[in-house]
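Bench log, entry 3. Co-assembly request; chain sequences pasted below exactly as received.
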Amino acid sequence: RTVYVNGDYLPEDEAKVSIFDRAFLMGDGVYEVTSVLGGKLIDFDGHRARLERSLDELDMPHPSVMDDLLDIHRELVRANEITDGLVYLQITRGAPGDRDFAFPDRDTPPTVVLFTQNKPGLADSPAAKQGLKIVSIEDLRWGRRDIKTTQLLYPSMGKMMAKKAGCDDAWMVQDGHVTEGTSNNAYIVKGNKIITRALSNDILHGITRAAVLRFAKEAQMQVEERNFTIDEAKEADEAFVTSASAFVMPVVEIDGASIGTGSPGALVPRLREIYLEESL
Ligand code: PDD
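Structure output for the full assembly:
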């Protein structure tokens, strides 16, 4: 696989990053995941805009390569012959050469890394037909989940808790209300209405979320942005998650309770179809 690191395209085993890199020592980095379908990048502009926002919120200087990111994405997709898959992008506050809590000088060169993941058949995964089983866990992450940082230990632990419970993923709960999934936004459906938590610092502002809600409204579905509980979710007609890698993915079970019939319903598969059609 060809990867990109700080200006160079290299075979993955030749790419190097300093042991003093702030993302390695402090989790001081931001990232984006952009999906590739049929060789085409999905929603690149949205991911790029959120990346800029993440950098700004953390007072991280924008690397000079910002204007070339689309070209780098395209070059990696081409070099690695990705038809369906993902491009991972990470920017860190660089490697000042020692460990220090305070941010280094603003002229410290940032670390910019991109690589691809090949996922043949990404859009027709069996999970989309079966639906996901979800377990609820407490949301113990920090308070700025709107910034897409590389601090992913708790979401990783959440996936492991889900696995241990025989589930596919976890929904996190704060003050009795669902925030989001470990790596996706969470929704419930009642009749023709889609309910999802409103944007705030409590959740990541999903790029897929924005697109899906826009398409839903265009398709005459109702959208209500408000908090909901796990109990309300268990009583919902349907449920789903969205992310760049899952697109629109039905949820069929929460904490052992079947949602609707226990199989994907009508609205969510339709919304998935609309999303994939409109995005391509
Ligand atoms: N995760 N919420 C969280 C906590 C996420 O990590 C993600 C994305 C989302 C969905 O955002 P988007 O629609 O922009 O992908 C919501 C990516 C896919 C990941 O970490 O792999």
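The chain is about 25% helix and 30% strand. The chain has two domains: 2-120, 127-279.
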